[in-house]
């Protein structure tokens, strides 16, 4: 309620106090993570996600979210094992592989990113976001003919133009989208 009233800092303070008073209440930690991520305080969410993973190490979403927060905090190398663990726990979830690919893009490992985006597209061939980022990875890896074909195919996809505009902007920022 406080967050909706524009008092996010106060809401965060209450959530932090509640999580500290009831450290075994994972729901409070989840709410705190959601508040931090919602405010784009990715670095602040990291210790809470680590606590969640310590309590429930087999939850793929916790690993994926930790990887995303690390990558968005400029720590893509540290994010990699968490994306890999999320993929191990839920191998058929395209988002885990796409997020790993985005972290690889941050590291200028474009060839590796292409491999991960291919895997993500095998699982979710209709994702415009994954497809657009895949085209960008192809281009950045020097595979210009394939990137051209990729883009032409993408033009047939609903929502492509809007997504490509955002993806092109992301290349200039040397990053790709997470949570594809």
The unreliable regions are 171-176
Gross morphology: elongated
Q: DSSP strand (E) fraction?
A: under 5%
What's the order of the H and E elements? Answer: HHHHHHHHHH
How would you portray this structure in words?
With 180 residues, the chain is mainly alpha-helical. It is 73% helix and 0% strand. The chain has ten helices and no strands. Helix 6 (94-106) packs antiparallel against helix 7 and helix 8 (128-140) packs antiparallel against helix 9. The relative contact order is 0.09. The model is unreliable at 171-176 (pLDDT under 50).
What's this entry about, in short?
The chain is mainly α. The chain has helices at residues 8-21, 26-38, 42-55, 60-72, 76-89, 94-106, 110-123, 128-140, 144-154, 160-172.
């Amino acid at each position: 309620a406080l967050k909706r009233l524009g008092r996010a800092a106060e809401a965060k303070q209450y959530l932090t106090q509640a999580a500290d008073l009831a450290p075994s209440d994972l729901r409070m930690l989840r709410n705190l993570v959601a508040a931090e991520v919602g405010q784009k305080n990715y670095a602040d969410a990291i210790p809470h996600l680590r606590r969640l993973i310590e309590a429930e190490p087999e939850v793929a979403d916790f690993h994926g979210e930790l990887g995303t927060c690390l990558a968005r905090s400029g720590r893509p190398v540290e994010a990699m094992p968490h994306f890999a663990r999320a993929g191990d726990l839920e191998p058929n979830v395209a988002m885990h592989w796409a997020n790993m690919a985005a972290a690889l893009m941050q590291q200028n490992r474009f060839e590796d990113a292409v491999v991960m985006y291919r895997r993500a597209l095998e699982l979710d061939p209709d994702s415009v976001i994954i497809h657009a980022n895949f085209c960008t990875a192809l281009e950045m890896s020097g595979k210009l003919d394939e990137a051209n074909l990729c883009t032409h195919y993408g033009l047939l996809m609903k929502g492509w133009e809007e997504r490509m505009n955002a993806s092109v902007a992301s290349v200039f920022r040397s990053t790709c989208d997470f949570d594809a």
